[in-house]
Amino acid sequence: MCPDVALLQEANPRHRLHPGWAPIGERRRWGSLVVARDGLRASPLTAVKGSAMKSPVSGEALSQTYPGAVYVAQIQPAGSEPLIFVSVYVVQENNVAQTVVHRVLSDLFPLLTDVRYKDRIVLGGDLNVSTQLGGMWARHSKSALDRITSAYGLINLTDGLRQREARLRGCPCRDEVCGHVRTRRSSNSPVPWQTDYLFVSAKLKKRVVHVEIPGDDDAAYAFSDHAPLVAHLQL
Known about the structure:
The protein is an alpha+beta fold. 15% of the residues lie in helices and 24% in strands.
């Protein structure tokens, strides 16, 4: 697999040649990053005009909750308008990620509501939330994911991929239709967790021709305890 663009989390680039990259800190020597193959340039957004805001917003403000946890870059594919890629890692505070997701989404409000950008967004990463959890954690996880799709109008590319297949084996969710895909192997839990997601703008969804569901074999986890989500777009 050799993607044109990769949204990375827990990234620690060796040569530090990526403008705007920063470690999250607090013993986290890594951060989020957007990288592109040769011939494409990932340029970090330095400012967002913010059509819903009175004045421009700095690129740093899009990651103010945890600097380094969100990386926003603009990439210009050949023969297409520039696309905005957002790589997100949600830090768990005292083992809770659901509240942090909402703060991160509030940071991204100027970008995700700006008419200049909102129709060409690709957002993905490790959100550390899942409706596979029990009780209130499932409800609060759903609330966070629904905010992305309902309030911001993005399309969850992993949702519904399994509707015509058998329920994800071992999934503890209580959903009438199990739409989860396994994206994480946990060393202390046999549950096939999904904490990683990939979203695109509704208009950009028309250009998605295929989404690859992570496998559950060793190859899918060759580099990490998280398996990659892969979307193919025709631009």
